[in-house]
Structures are given as C-alpha cells and as structure tokens.
C-alpha cells in the first residue's frame, strides 16, 4: 500500500470521526414538538426570557433537573395552584381537565418530560391553551416537578424516570394523536 493511499485513508477516518463528534451530540438532543400538529416548537418568540441553567440542561438532555428537588417542587406547587388547579384540581386529581397523577395520558408523549413540557408550553386541544406567555420555561419545569412528585401509578410506567436520551420513542418520532379511553 502506498504512503499516499495510507495518508488519504487516515485523513478520511479523521474527517469521519470529526463529523461523528459533531453530529452525534446534536442527534441525542430532544426535539420538542407541538403534540397536536406535530410541528417543532418555536422558541424564538421568547427573546426577552433568559434561559436558566435548568432550562438549558433540560433542552440539551430532555431530563428535568428539578425532578426530586424539594425547593423546586414547593415552588411548582404554588405555581400549579395559580396557573393550573382551576382545570386540573388542587392536587392534580382532575376537574375540567384530566388528572395528572396516574398512568393514563390523553397524549402518551406526556409520560416523558419533553412531552409534558411541550403540552404546557404550546398547549393542546380543548381548553388547554399555551402557557408560554403566562409561565417562564423555568417555572414550567418546576410545575412539572411538582406534578411528577404527585404520581400514584406504577413506577415502572413512569417514562420521565428514564433518561430522555434512552427514550427513543419521543426523540425519534413525532407525537401520536390523542387516544380515547375505552368504556369500562
């Protein structure tokens, strides 16, 4: 084998490794979708909002850093009481809107933190309007942490307890339309 061919092979291998190092981290980042339309969320209209470290971590990994954080959960409870309890009940048990503490999700993507964030941020059908102009993204993460702390279902079914990077169903596919509960 000639030196030139060997050098070319090494250069191509290095170029391939450099490309993989650039592409793979981007591929692991979650993509946030509107759960009704299936379109990517647009964060550009929040130029006035400074992203906290927690929001940056969440957008990079899909894991809510406030899950299990007692201070954030307390703040989330207060925020939920003013922004969400009118429809979802004071304890997230359901009222006009669905309960948020069990295994049933009208939008299955809400079993993941990126999915629940997308629902809160951009809204859903019916009465669930977008909260992006009512709550900051950091406040949304705190509300989510409180909702997750109220969970009464099977821990094995709690998709948000898995690392978002392993939750391929949300990261690689667009959301599915809502499912209907079958009559009992």
UniProtKB/TrEMBL annotation:
Keywords: Heme, Iron, Metal-binding, Signal. It comes from the Bacteria. Residues 1-28 form the signal peptide. The keyword Lyase does not apply. Residues 154-184 are annotated as: Disordered. Residues 71-151 form the Cytochrome c domain. Residues 160-172 have a biased composition (Polar residues). One of its GO terms (molecular function) is electron transfer activity. Heme c binds at residues 84, 87-88. Binds 1 heme c group covalently per subunit. GO terms for cellular component: periplasmic space. It holds the Pfam family Cytochrome_CBB3. InterPro entries: Cyt_c-like_dom (IPR009056), Cyt_c-like_dom_sf (IPR036909), Cyt_cL (IPR009153), Cytochrome_c_Oxidase_Subunit (IPR050597). PANTHER family: CBB3-TYPE CYTOCHROME C OXIDASE SUBUNIT FIXP (PTHR33751). This is Cytochrome cL apoprotein. It comes from Rubrivivax gelatinosus (Rhodocyclus gelatinosus).
């Amino acid at each position: 084998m000639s030196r030139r061919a060997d050098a070319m092979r090494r250069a191509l291998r290095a170029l391939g490794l450099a490309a993989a190092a650039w592409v793979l981290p981007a591929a692991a980042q979650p993509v946030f979708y509107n759960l009704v339309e299936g379109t990517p969320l647009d964060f550009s209209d929040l130029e006035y909002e400074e992203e906290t470290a927690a929001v940056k971590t969440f957008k990079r990994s899909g894991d809510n850093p406030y899950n299990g954080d007692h201070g954030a959960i307390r703040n989330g409870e207060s925020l939920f009481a003013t922004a969400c309890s009118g429809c979802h009940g004071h304890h997230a048990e359901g009222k006009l809107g669905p309960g948020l503490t069990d295994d049933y999700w009208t939008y299955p993507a809400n079993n993941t933190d990126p999915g629940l964030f997308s629902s809160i941020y951009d809204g859903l059908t019916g009465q669930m309007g977008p909260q992006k102009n009512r709550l900051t993204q950091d406040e949304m993460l705190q509300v989510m942490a409180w909702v997750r702390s109220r969970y009464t279902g099977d821990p094995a079914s709690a998709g948000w307890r898995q690392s978002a990077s392993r939750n391929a169903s949300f990261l690689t596919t667009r959301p599915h339309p809502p499912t209907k509960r079958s009559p009992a």
